[in-house]
Amino acid sequence: MTYHREIDGLRALAAIVVLAFHTNLPGFGGGFLGVDLFFVLSGFLTTSLLVPQIESFSPDGFRRFLSRRLWRLWPLLLAFCAILALALWLVGLGSPAALLNAALFLGNTDRAVLGYASYSVHTWSLAAEMQFYVLLALLAFVLRSARQLQAALMAGFLAVTLCRVVFALSGDWGGGFYSPFAHSSGLFLGGLLATMPRRQMHHAPVACAAALLVLAAAVTVAVFRSYGALLLWITFTELATAVLLMALLSGRAGVVARVLGLRPLVWFGQLSYGVYLWHYPLSVLLRDALPPLVTFLATLVISLALAAASFRWLEAPLRRYGNARTQRIRPSAPLHGATG
User: Fold this and answer.
1) What is the domain extent for residue 37?
2) Residues 100-122: what's their mean pLDDT?
3) More confident residue, 317 or 155
4) Secondary structure, 3-state, the chain
5) Mean pLDDT for the chain?
6) Count of structural domains, the chain
7) Of 34, 71, 170, 335, whose CB is crowded by the most CB atoms within 10 A?
8) How far from the centroid of its chain's Cα atoms is residue 188's Cα?
9) pLDDT in tens, 27-86
10) Residues 6+ away with beta carbon under 8 Å from 268
11) Pairwise CA distance, residues 158 & 179, whole Å
12) Contacts of 77-81 spanning 24+ positions with Cβ under 8 A
């Protein structure tokens, strides 16, 4: 499939919303829903790499697929953990050993099971992504059928959503948010969307429905204050993102696509992984000392600068090196801009 720059713009908005939530910016009490937008996009883009190859997905293909995922996510994550560990050790704010789970893509199990919070707690979402990629590769290798993969992803989406509802009804917000069994449904939904024929996305009402759903989802970010209710609204946000993504892919998103395709948003979206990693410890350090708006702006500028630097001198070179070492698993046409 062709490159849709609007997807990068959408990823930029998701990163900004999450950053606003972590800096306590008024009106963004549900800003963590931006992570669910990320999940849908990552699930879609990554599954799109596998679907054209699924009937011949070999053990070697399995290895190459996961190797590419690691080369995409691990170098910057390891650098982040190393720098944060050094900083924590120098100022005595915590044990660097606590970052081990984050570096091994186990941050979600650490937070959900042990109740541990840290300057790296936000890496739970990276753990969820990598765990999904491993499961996705296993499903592709075992099933060897796009139709069967579609059924498995649908079952996964429904099962994880049901698990989250159980957590919400029981009042366990932490478990419902951080557990890999309760908060990875967006990845399954995005993957499910990738298995759909593109002709199923060319329906006239799609763009209008997308605009309405996303607007409603944005309102929930500002209005709903109950964490239990927000756990249930995660599903709504996932579905809204899926509908918007269908509209973007069908070319019927109109003004929404034009706004999301603006160059500054696209550039920001391409750096969103680095922004997401760097912003959280900055927000923790600044939000108790500065007003929310100042904290937001300072965190935004600093994390964006760090993301740009790490992308140029770490992510991009190592990604090229990783690509040279592993044969690329290609979709039917070039796919650019994937986060996962």
Assistant:
1) 5-325
2) 78
3) 155
4) CCCCHHHHHHHHHHHHHHHHHHCCCCCCCCHHHHHHHHHHHHHHHHHHHHHHHHHHCCHHHHHHHHHHHHHHHHHHHHHHHHHHHHHHHHHCCCCHHHHHHHHCCCHHHHHHHHCCCCCCHHHHHHHHHHHHHHHHHHHHHHHCCHHHHHHHHHHHHHHHHHHHHHHHHHCCHHHHHHCCCCCCHHHHHHHHHHCCCHHHHCCCCHHHHHHHHHHHHHHHHHHCCCHHHHHHHHHHHHHHHHHHHHHHHHCCCCHHHHHHCCHHHHHHHHCHHHHHHHHHHHHHHHCCCCCHHHHHHHHHHHHHHHHHHHHHHHHHHHHHHHHHHCCCCCCCCCCCCCCC
5) 85
6) 1
7) 34
8) 12
9) 888 888 899 999 999 999 999 989 998 988 888 889 999 999 999 999 999 999 999 999
10) 8, 9, 12, 15, 16, 275, 304
11) 15
12) 77/102, 77/103, 77/123, 77/126, 77/277, 78/103, 79/310, 79/314, 80/120, 80/277, 80/278, 81/120
Between the two ends of the chain, the Cα-to-Cα distance in Å is 16
Nearest to 98 by CA among 286, 89, 90: 89
Residue for token pair 């011949």: 56
In a domain, 274, yes or no: yes
More confident residue, 22 or 336: 22
Closest C-alpha among 7, 12, 6, 10 to residue 274: 12
Determine, yes or no, domain membership for 331.
Answer: no
Residues near 35 by Cβ (< 8 Å), separated by ≥ 6?
A: 14, 18, 125
**Within a domain: residue 340?**
no
Q: Is the pLDDT of residue 94 over 50?
A: yes
Question: In sequence order, which residues have a C-beta less than 8 Å from that of residue 203 and are 6 or more positions away?
Answer: 250
Residue 15 one-letter amino acid: A
